[in-house]
Amino acid sequence: xxxxxxxxxxxxxxxxxxxxLPLMKRxxxxxxxxxxxxPRDEYAEELESAGIELxxxxxxxxxxxxxxxxxxxxxxxxxxxxxxxVICFHYTIKAVLYGAISAHVNSIRFVSIIxxxxxxxxxxxxxxxxxxxxxxxxxxxxxxVWFLNREDREEFLQLGLVRPxxxxxxPGEGVDTNHFRMSSETExxxxxxxxxxxxxxxxxxxxxxxxxxxxxxxxxxRGFCAKFSVLGxxxxxxxxxxxxxxxxxxxxxxxxxxxxxxLDVRPYIQAADCVVLPSYREGLxxxxxxxx
Length: 292
Prior knowledge:
Layout: E1 2-9, H1 13-29, E2 33-38, H2 44-49, E3 53-56, H3 66-83, E4 85-91, H4 93-105, E5 109-114, H5 118-122, H6 126-138, E6 144-147, H7 150-158, E7 167-169, E8 195-200, H8 209-221, E9 226-231, H9 244-252, E10 257-258, H10 266-271, E11 274-276, H11 286-289
Helix pairs in contact: 3-4, 4-6
C-alpha cells in the first residue's frame, strides 16, 4: 500500500477539473501523490498541467452494454492494483459503484460521495432499480459515505442503502471564494427596465427546465418585464435531456436566450439580477454557491 497515494475517480475529466481541482492541489501541497482516474476529455490537459497524474478510464457515462461495463470495472480494478493508494474517493454514480467493487477487490479503503440523487431516484425502470440494488450491495462496504444534504442521507438510510455509522453530511463541497467573489462593479451604471434572470444548468427535465418555461409564460401573461437566459450544456445523453428541437423552438419563440456553455460563469452572474436553479434534486448546488 502506497501511504502517499490518493485516487479520485469520476465519470469525466471535466468533473474533476471543474469541481475538485483545488482539492487535488491542496492534497499535493500536503505531500500526496494525487492520481485522477476518468475518461479523457478536453479538460485533461488542464489537469495534467497542474501536475495531476491522470489515467484514462474507458467508460461511457450512459452506456448500459454489459460487456463494456464489465470491461470498465476490470480496467479500474487493474488501475487500483497498480497504484495501491491509501484511500480512494469516488464521484458520480458509475464511479461510486464500480469504484466500490475495484477498491474492495484490492482491499483499499474508499469514500463514496453522493453529490445528488438525480435520475436514479427520480425515475423508475430497469436501470434505476438495478442501480439502487447495487447501491445497497456496495455502499455498505464504504469507509465513509458523504452526502451534501440531510435529506439525501435520510433517504439512503430509510432505503437501507448505507450503514448509519458511515453516512455523514458535508457542508457542501464549496467554491473558491477568491475566484467567486461579489463585485461592486455595475454594468455601465444604467438601470435596466427588465429584471434579468439567469439559469445555470444543463438542459434536462430533471433540472426543472420545463417548469422554468411554464414560469416564463406566467410572467409574460401577467405583464412582468423580465428577461431570461440559460447557460449550460444541451444535447446530453441523459435520459431526461430536452431535445434540441424543443430548445430551438423555445428560443425562436423568445422564451429565453440560450447562452451556450462557458468555462468562466462569473461575467454572466455579474450581468444578472437573479440567478435561478429550479432543479428537482441537488446535493448542494455549486451554481448557487457561485452566485453571491
